[in-house]
Amino acid sequence: MSRLCVFAGTTEGRRLVELLAGRGLEITACAATEYGSALLGGRDVRTRPGRMDAAEMAAFLAEGRFDLVVDATHPYAALVTQNIFAACAEAGVPCLRLLRESGAGAGDGAFVPDAAACAEYLLRTEGNILLTTGSKELPAFCAHLELCERIYARVLPAEASLRACFDCGVRPDRVFAMQGPFDEEMNLAMLRAARARWLVTKDTGSAGGYAAKLRAAERAGARVVVIGRPVQREGLSFERMLREIERRFELAPLKKRVTLAGAGMGGADSQTLGLRRAVEEADCLIGAKRMLEAVDCAGKPRAAAVAPAEIARIVRESPLRSFTVLLSGDTGFYSGAKKLIAELTDAELTVLPGIGSLQYFCAKLRRPWEDVRAVSLHGRDCDLAREVREHPAVFALVGGEGGAKRALERLCGAGLGACRAHVGERLGYPDERVRSGGAAELAREDFDPLSVLLIENERWESESIAYGLPDEAFERGGVPMTKSEVRAVSLSKLMLTRGAVVYDVGAGSGSVTVEAARAARDGRVYAIERREEALALARRNVERFGLTNVELVAGCAPDALKDLPAPTHAFIGGSAGKLREIVERILEKNPAARIVVNAVTLETVAELTELAGEFEYCDVAQVAVSKPRRVGGHSLMTAQNPVYIFAMQNPKRGVERC
C-alpha cells in the first residue's frame, strides 16, 4: 500500500485527508497540537501530533518511508513550510505544497506586513479589537498594555491556546475559544459581543472564512486590519492537488458531492442555517440567476442554470468536487429537486428543505396550512375551479406575468367569484405585499409576476361527489342530452380512474364529458362531436364548470379518433350508424379499453348484442326512468324511453361471457 504524509493543520488539509481516506492509501496526518490531531483521525489514517523542527521532521520522514509528502500548513507558517521541504530533501521524499487561494482585495481594509506592525498601527486607534489571528500572535499585541486591555482574542479551544491567553494577560471574559471557520453570522455575533471597532485578520482565503469576516465587520461598523501573507512557495490548488494524488497513486475519482438546498423565499430572513452551511462548504454554487443573487455566495464560483440536465452536465464536467444547487422555496414542494435526484444518480446527494411559499404565506395570513390543498399552475394543467370546489382552502403557484389575474378570472368564470382570495406578491423580499378580498374583486387588479394565491371556500363541503348532476346544472339548448339518472348509471358502469383517458363519442351537450372530466381529475377527456351547434354547447358547459382537462374534437367518428391518444375508457352516446367501426378503432388503440354504449333503438340493441359477444366481458342493463309531471292539481309519473346500457371490455379474466 502506498504511503502518504500530510502536514494538515488547516481546513483544506483536513479536507484533503478526508477525501483520500479509505481509498487504498496509508495516510499519516501531522498536526502541531493534540487538538488538531484529534480532528484528523479516521479510516486508514494515522495521526502524529506535536511540533517538529527540521531535524525531527527528517528523521520522521525517513522512518516512515513515505511515497509522497503534502505540505498543507497555514500560508502564514512560512518557517514550517521551509522545514518540511528541507526535511523532504534530506529524506529523499517528493513534496508538494497545497496552496490556499488569496481572498484579499485592495479595498478590504488597512494592510500591514506582520503582527508587530499591526500592533503599532492599532496603538494609534481607539476602541475594542477582535483579534482573529490565533494565540501565536498574542505576544506581539499584548506587549503593549494599552492594546491588551482593548483586545478580545479568538483562539482554538485547546489547552495551549488558553494558556497563551493567560500568560499574555488577556482576561478570561475576553476569550472566544472556538474551532473555525466561522460564518458571517457567528463573526457578527462576536464583533457585537466585543463591541469591537476593529477586526484583525490574516488573508485566510475562503477556506479560512476571510470573506465572511469582512462582511460581518461591515455590518457591525468595524474597520478591518489585514496582516499580509509571507511570500509563498509555488504549489497546487486544492483541486489540482487532489487530481495529482489520484493520478500518482491511480485512485478512482471520488463521487461528486451535491447538496440540493431550499433557498427560501428570496430574502435572507427565510434562509436556513443549513443552507448557509451548505454554501460555505461548497466549491461551486448552481441555480437560477434570482437565487444566486438572493443568497450570499461568499465569493464562490457560480453557474446560472435551471434545467436539471444542464445542472447535471455542469456537475459532471466541472473539475470541482462539491456543489450546492440553490432551489427556490422548499425542495419538496414543486421543486426541481425531484428531477435532479433522477439526473444525479452518480453523485453523493444531500437534500436540505427550505421555507416554501406555502408555509411562509400562511404564516403571513396567520392561519394553519394543514387543511390547504397545494397545486401549481406554473407550466402544468390543473383544474383550479374543481380544486376550490372540493377543498376548504387551495394554495396555488400561479407562475409568471399575469398568472394570478388569469387564475382569479378563471374562478370567476366558474361561478366562484364570491370565494375569499389572498394574493402574496414578492414574498420574502423587502417590497413584499399581501392583498385580500373576494376573488371577483381581486380579478380586476394586476399583480407582480412573482405571486402566489390562496383561495378559501366556505361552501366546499356542499360540492357533490357523486355522478348524476341535475340536468338543470347544464345549458340545454336544442341538443339531446343524456339525462341525469341514465348518466349516473352509465358512468358508474364505465368505472373511471383518476388518470383515465376518456373518449366521449357523440358528446352532444357535453353532460357526460363534464362528469367524466370531474371524475378523471388527473386524466383527460376527448369530446368528439360532428355537429357545430352541439360542439358549441358542449364548450359552454365545459367552461361553465371551469374544466381544464377536456379537449373538444370536431369531426365524425371513427375518423376523428385517428390522431387522439389511446383511450383507457370510452363512452359512445351517438354513432351516426358507424358503431362497429368506432368500437374497432378504439380497440386498435387499446385492446383493453373499457367501453360503455347507450342504445335507445332496437336496431342499435341488436347490433350491440352481436358486438358484445366478441368481448370477453360484457354487462347489459336496461334503465327505465319515470319523472313526475303536473296534470291539473296532481303529479303523474311519466315514463321516458328505456335506455340499454352495454359495458364491454377485453380482457377480463374470470368473468362469464354474455
Q: Could you list some keywords that capture this structure?
A:
Cobalt-precorrin-4 Transmethylase, domain 1; disordered C terminus; Rossmann fold; 33% helix; 658 residues; seven-stranded mixed beta sheet; alpha/beta
Give an overview in words:
With 658 residues, this protein is α/β, with parallel strands linked by helices. It has 5 domains: 2-97, NAD(P)-binding Rossmann-like Domain (Rossmann fold, 3-Layer(aba) Sandwich), CATH 3.40.50; 110-227, HUPs (Rossmann fold); 255-355, Cobalt-precorrin-4 Transmethylase, domain 1 (3-Layer(aba) Sandwich); 359-461, Tetrapyrrole methylase, C-terminal domain (Methyltransferase, Cobalt-precorrin-4 Transmethylase, Domain 2), CATH 3.30.950; 471-649, Vaccinia Virus protein VP39 (Rossmann fold, 3-Layer(aba) Sandwich), CATH 3.40.50.150. The protein is 33% helix and 24% strand. The chain is built from 24 helices and 30 strands. A 7-stranded mixed sheet has the order 24-23-22-25-26-30-27, with helices on both faces. It has a 6-stranded parallel sheet with strand order 6-11-10-7-8-9. β28 and β29 (634-639) form a beta hairpin. The relative contact order is 0.06.
Blueprint of the fold:
Layout (H helix, E strand, L loop, with lengths): L1 E6 L3 H10 L4 E7 L2 H5 L6 E5 L4 H11 L3 E4 L6 H14 L3 E3 L12 E3 L2 H8 L5 E4 L6 H5 L2 H4 L2 E5 L3 H10 L6 E3 L6 H11 L1 E7 L7 H11 L2 E5 L10 H11 L8 E6 L10 H9 L2 E4 L1 H6 L7 E3 L3 H10 L4 E6 L9 H7 L4 E5 L4 H8 L7 E5 L7 H7 L2 E5 L5 H11 L6 E6 L7 E6 H4 L8 E6 L27 H11 L6 E5 L5 H9 L4 E6 L2 H13 L5 E5 L14 E4 L6 H11 L4 E6 L2 H11 L4 E7 L2 E6 L2 E6 L3 E7 L9
Parallel strand pairs: 1-2, 1-4, 2-3, 4-5, 6-11, 7-8, 7-10, 8-9, 10-11, 12-15, 12-16, 13-14, 13-15, 17-18, 22-23, 22-25, 23-24, 25-26
Antiparallel strand pairs: 18-21, 19-20, 19-21, 26-30, 27-30, 28-29
Helix pairs in contact: 3-4, 9-10, 14-15
